[in-house]
Hints:
Layout lengths: L14 E7 L2 E7 L8 E2 L8 E2 L6 H21 L9 H8 L3 H8 L2 H8 L3 H7 L7 H16 L15 H21 L5 H20 L4 H5 L2 H16 L2
Antiparallel strand pairs: 1-2, 3-4
Helix pairs in contact: 1-2, 1-4, 6-8, 6-10, 7-8, 8-10
Amino acid sequence: MRSSKPKSSGAGPDRALTTRAAGVVTSAAVTEDADADAAADVTAGGTGTAAATDSGPGRRDAEATRAAILRAARHLLARHAHGDITLKAVAERAGVSPPLIVKYFGNKEALFARVMSFEEDAAALLDAPLADLGHHMVRHVLVSQSERGSDPLARIVFAPLHGSQGDTLRTNFRTQVSDRLALRLEGPDAGLRAELAVSMLLGLGVMYGIARGEELRARALDVVVERYAPAVQACLTP
């Protein structure tokens, strides 16, 4: 469905930035702001600022605000074409003002460059010894879905919605997730085995979070992990 809302173009003295490193592609405009860590009131009634410190409540509030904006952008990216999403829509869902998004991220393209990166998600997903990695990855997907309301991988499913931005999403997914996992594997066909393992995780996430499988969601996480993880591990350590 194409939104009729006008699109925000961002504001401020932006500087074009294109990065290609280790096969990762992002294209964004970024703004330098000395006050980027200032705290913000994220209640629906308005916004406000306060001086931030490295460890005080201002820093925590700023981090919570950024996290809320990223969650909102992810939510919308999974439901609408990239070109149809406005900063206003992201701001409304996050409970902040559009200028606050510009303050923290620069503009829409800079925000969605972050959302389309799998770097942080992959680091958490692969954070276990190889012998236990299958169990860790399955549990991580299920906990992310059931307790945090997000999936570390599922946004790749919506790449066809996003035109050329979908190509960026696919490239990041391959280099940051599948290829990164393959580098951890020993033995033949590491790339194939990595993609098979990741496909199992994607299927689990889609069934749990999108198809909302009744039997799957009714079972304790430990039960699902014990049934599903050995199949994933078999791809990692054949």
